[in-house]
Amino acid sequence: MRITTNAILRNYKSNLGTSLKNLDTARTRVMTQRKFNSTAEDPSNALRAAILERKYVKNEDYLNIVKDVQSFQDSQEDAAMQIETIAKRLSKQYGLEALNGTNGSLETRKTYADAWRGAQESLLLSLNASYEGKYVFAGSDGKEAPFKLTEEPDPNDPTKTIQVLKYRGVDVNDPANADVLEKLSKDTLFVDLGFGLNVDVLNGGKDIDVDSSSAFNTSLPGINLAGFGKDDNGRTNNIVLLCGQIADLLDEEEFDRDEYTELLKKFDEGRSNVLEKVTILGTQTEFLTTTKDRLETNSISLSTQIDNVVNVDMAEAIMNFSWAQYAYNAALKVGNNILTPSFIDFMN
């Protein structure tokens, strides 16, 4: 087969162009640290990278939400523990000391009454605790302080006043509000933490039902913590109101020891309820910690997968660049000797 000079030149130019393209590709990979810079270069890995990056961004969103919920939950737990600490001091210290025979004088009882009233204010402050402008015990409506304590005329004796505690504008001690309070006690505020949120739209879009197993409920209505309604004997279940009633009883000249004992027993039951809620909050905190750890593990795993698909091994990339540069320089050197001597060179 006859090989012409033009054929040699065409092949040389084509191969030189290939060497230059390989050099440019290797140089770009070293500079960008990416295996490809356009979808056309590697369609399959480009699609895989896009899917992984979307998963990573979504995972980071969930991780940020979990951190915010953790902070909110910590505020709830701190406030609940403050309430439990105050209630324990009242129940186990002031309450029992006031029953002591040596401290049974009216003057001494008034001192303890002042302590109960001061503790009542502290309980109310803790129940109205807030985090970043949102009240932590207000259920799904965190914009307004959930509890408000006022003095109002006694329906049975207009010459006297009684304390009225309202939760989101509803009297917690009024039997007529039982259904409303029961509904408020079950108030929820769900947050999607990446468990596959499942929502059902009901009544033509008017109602939304969230599957509680697919989301996290951040709502803790304050009445579940402090209590609401009355028992069968007509005594309040609310520890804030019990503080005021115990203080009033201690202020009376004729001390009703039996009634005081019953009120103290009711208060201790309320304290046990607070302790139960604190325990539940602790369990939820552990759950959030586990969820946060899982999301952080997912983040690391997705980052590793993205790195394997998108990013180059720099040692290998630099080696490939060096080889491509060497091949290109060698091709240029070959070009100097591409035209071999011909018969014309030997003619006189």
Notable traits:
348 residues; mainly alpha; f41 fragment of flagellin, N-terminal domain; 3-stranded antiparallel sheet; two-stranded antiparallel sheet; 8 helices; 60% helix; 11% strand
Account of the 3D structure:
By secondary structure, the chain is mainly alpha-helical. The protein has one domain (52-304): f41 fragment of flagellin, N-terminal domain, CATH 1.20.1330.10. It has helices spanning 5-32, 43-99, 106-127, 178-185, 222-226, 239-251, 257-310, 314-335; strands at 130-131, 134-135, 147-154, 157-167, 170-171, 190-191, 199-202, 207-210, 216-217. Helix 3 (106-127) packs antiparallel against helix 6.
Which helices and strands, and how do they pair?
Layout: H1 5-32, H2 43-99, H3 106-127, E1 130-131, E2 134-135, E3 147-154, E4 157-167, E5 170-171, H4 178-185, E6 190-191, E7 199-202, E8 207-210, E9 216-217, H5 222-226, H6 239-251, H7 257-310, H8 314-335
Antiparallel strand pairs: 1-2, 3-4, 4-5, 6-9, 7-8
Helix pairs in contact: 1-8, 2-3, 2-7, 3-6, 6-7
